[in-house]
Amino acid sequence: MHKHIILPLFLLFAGAFAPTLIAQNKNISNGNIYEGEPFIAVNPANTRNIVVCWMGLAPTSTTGATIKVRSSFDGGATWSAVKWIPHLQTGHKSADPSMVFDTDGTLYLCYIDWAEVPISGGVYVCKSVDGGLNWAPPVEALSVFADGQKLPLDRPWMVIDRSNGPLHGALYLTTKPAPWILPPNRPYFTHSTNGG
User: Fold this and answer.
1) Which residues make beta-bridge pairs with 85?
2) DSSP E strand stretches across 89-187
3) CB of 155 within 8 A of CB of 70?
4) CA-to-CA distance for 77 and 56, rounded, in angstroms?
5) The pLDDT of residue 131
6) Cα(37)–Cα(42) distance, rounded to whole angstroms?
7) CA end-to-end span of the chain, whole Å?
8) CB within 8 A of 159, min separation 6: which ones?
9) How far apart are CA 120 and CA 151, in angstroms?
């Protein structure tokens, strides 16, 4: 008799708590084709402010891959409209985004924006002071020609000094050569002490 009671009780219990047991997945990109290389950052000054960036297709097919950004100010329940980070030149494409918040809520985004023929572009940094809704014009952090033909623009990644020490707010960025560049290769490092 206990076997017959346990199963209905289990189903009742599972049904009552199912909404909290199911993952709360939300399609942020709403893309129909490849949209990848996502990165997420949480604002330490307002932990309900979450920003996601990724590489995807721009509004028109002629502009190629670009960086897209969406922000949430309620812990991910709702999201802003998609913001496209514009290319610096016609024919460029973007990839490899990463972000970091300063302790005051200033958000920095780094990414590559470049063209293969003719080779141009580099690694760029832009910032937002309103939780990822609007972005200042990008600043070049590292030129594609910073080391001759080694193309130091693959997989840039950025951190910020939050130590409250003398270098508080300093940005540190590292990158590597494009994957098709033959050895010998080395990592690259640059920094900014004036907010990018």
Assistant:
1) 67
2) 93-101, 107-115, 120-128, 139-143, 154-160, 171-176
3) no
4) 22
5) 97
6) 17
7) 71
8) 100, 171, 172
9) 10
**What radius of gyration do the chain's Cα atoms show?**
21
Q: What is the pLDDT of residue 73?
A: 97
Block residue for tokens 């990018």: 196
Across the chain, which distance is largest between two alpha carbons, in Å? 80
Between the CA of residue 33 and those of 52, 56, 67, 113, 125, what are the distances in Å? 18, 9, 15, 21, 26
Residue with tokens 């572009």: 121
Dist. CA 35–CA 29, nearest whole Å: 7
Residue 150: both structure tokens together: 């080694």
177 secondary structure, DSSP code = -
Give the separation between CA 144 and CA 146, rounded to whole angstroms.
6
**Sheet of strand 36-42: strand arrangement:** 36-42, 50-57, 65-72, 83-85
**158 dihedral zone (left: phi>0; alpha: psi -120 to 50; beta):** beta
Q: Confidence class of residue 21 from pLDDT cuts 50, 70 and 90?
A: very low
- Say whether 46 sits in a helix, a strand or coil: coil
CB 36 within 8 A of CB 55: yes
Quick check: pTM over 0.90? no
